[in-house]
Amino acid sequence: MMDSAHSTAGAWLPLFIDVAEQPVLVVGGGVEARRKVDRLLRHGARVELLGAVRDADLAAHVEHGRVLGIDALERRDYRLIIVAERDTEAAAQAHAWAARHRIVVNAVDDPERCSALMPAIVDRAPITIAIGSAGTAPELARMIRSRIEALLPAWTGTLARLADVYKPLMRKRYPEPARRRRFLNWLFTGAPAQSLAAGRPGDAEAAVVDALNKDTDDGPGSVALVGAGPGDPELLTVRALRMIQQADVIIHDALVDRRVLEYARRDVELIDAGKRGGRCSTPQLVIHNLLLDHARQGKRVVRLKGGDPMVFGRGGEELEFLRAHSIEYSVVPGITAAAGCAAYAGIPLTHRDHAQSVHLVTAHGQQSIDRLDWRALARERQTLAFYMAVSRIDTVQAKLLRHGRDPDTPVALVENGARGEQRVLTATLARLSELARHYQVRSPAMLYVGEVAQLANTLSWWGQSPLSLDTRADAESSFEPQKQAVHG
Ligand code: SAH
Asked: pLDDT tens track of the chain, all 488 residues?
């Protein structure tokens, strides 16, 4: 397989060739030839065409003089020859010509005869990403291209041009390369990038001009409050992923899945500000100061939180603090546990027949328990999604019953939702405490109260089937037949 230097990936040197005003030969007359011709014309090449023309657009190109049709090969100075058909007289001639005059040749779908390969391209001009597979798997290269395209927003090119326009000013303002690099980092990920993302190119440019005119030499650092979702890294948003990959520092919660952190750069500084119900945690004030210190050093700080940063995540307090200290910030929403765990347990949070509203409630601490309007929470036909409820399950049950919620109301506990070890437990409100004790539910878990909770029993699709007090499949017995589970 690896008999020639060509077939090893190492033989191919990636290169971008300037074809503007250069003679390039295309051989063929069909769709494939037309595609190559169109591409070459876009890059300003002088295209000559050898072969019987069948494609109408190609014929038009020749007719209107955009492409020169030729019958015989005479030039030796082609920068490149592209053979876009196989097994024709013209193709054979072109290959012989290329070999004789040592001209670089690309043969479509015929890697054996290529001395140059056409990569799959992500076009964010002037940024261009070429993906090659050394001729082995062009399909895979195209798949990789789609993934990169999803990661690189359409405005990436605009950002590159913006940096280019202000390059001279930037050189003057920051003669020292390291300092200039920091500025560029900010330009590519901070306020200018965010303005472009929001469709405001004017603001992007203004931010650059502003920063260049400022007389402090402090790097403009920034903080992104990023939601990591409930577990499964596939539930990150594309933007969250980008922020994590770009971060200089990541300050994360205990709830953030390890696998999410693996997306970070190798040299990222990871700070665990883990707080997990009761266990040792970093005081909020210390977190605030960490954010401030790192941002002031010109770093891109990601404050990474489980779920969504604005739902029971103290995101609001952190933003207020950053605003008070004039630190630039942005927020990337994540899938909050109430939504993520419900989806992975097969519980629709609303349902035309069962629930018209959803309440996101925290049962953390006596204070929040006391302040809740239990009478309103005990009404029918609504879904309650309790966060941080594990240690307060008895209280929640007692309060809801006392305020008139039907003891037969379905409930569900989802422990480690959207993760491999997810457990879903179902019962009625009357037996909620018993359920939690029986299965020794641990944090993190969501508690759902409402008619929709029972749908987990029929709609569950992820991991093990739901357990209930009547399920005889206890920890001891693993022989109980389980519903066919679908793993993602
Ligand atoms: N900002 C987070 C919530 C933080 S509060 C969000 O939007 O999801 C922490 C509580 O979230 C936990 O006590 C638990 O009730 C819930 N939680 C978070 N991730 C969870 C998961 N994977 N499974 C079950 N509950 C989870």
From this structure: 444 445 455 688 999 999 999 999 999 999 999 999 999 999 999 999 999 999 999 999 999 999 999 999 999 999 999 999 999 999 999 999 999 999 999 999 898 999 999 999 998 888 999 999 888 888 899 889 988 887 888 899 999 999 999 999 999 998 988 788 888 888 988 889 889 988 999 999 999 999 898 766 555 688 999 999 998 899 999 999 989 988 989 999 988 988 999 999 888 999 999 855 445 677 889 999 999 999 998 888 999 999 999 999 999 999 999 999 999 999 999 999 999 999 999 999 999 999 999 999 998 878 888 899 999 999 999 999 999 989 999 999 999 999 999 999 999 999 999 999 999 999 999 999 999 999 999 999 999 999 999 999 999 999 999 999 976 544 444 444 444 444 43
**Using an 8 Å Cβ cutoff, are 53 and 79 in contact?**
no
Task: Give me the catalytic one of 110, 203, 272, 275.
Answer: 275
Find the helix or strand (DSSP H, E) in which 243 lies: helix 238-246
98 lines ligand 1 (CB under 6 A): no
Regarding the beta carbon of 135 and ligand 1, being less than 6 Å apart is answered no
User: In degrees rounded to 5, what are phi and psi of residue 462?
Assistant: -110, 135
| Ligand 1 atom nearest residue 338's Cα | 8
Do 427 and 468 meet the contact criterion of CB atoms below 8 Å apart? yes
Pocket test for ligand 1, best of 226, 236, 237, 255 (most atoms within 8 A of CB): 255
Q: Is ligand 1 within 6 A of the CB of residue 287? A: no
Specify whether 373 is catalytic: no
Amino acid present at 165: V
Whether 253 is catalytic is yes
Q: What ligand 1 atom has the least distance to the C-alpha of 415?
A: 24
Distance of CA 39 to the CA centre of its chain: 30
Angle at alpha carbon of residue 222, lines to 219 and 225, rounded to 5°: 170
Q: On the CB side of 337, how many CA atoms lie within 13 Å of its CA? A: 31
Q: Which of 439, 462, 456, 211 is nearest to 354 (CA)?
A: 456
445 alpha carbon to ligand 1 midpoint, in Å? 7
Residue 240 tokens, joined: 């969250």
Does an H or E element contain 471, and which? Answer: none
Q: Kindly report the number of other CB atoms within 10 A of residue 152's CB atom.
A: 17
Q: Dihedral (C-alpha) 100, 101, 107, 113: value to the nearest 10 degrees?
A: 40
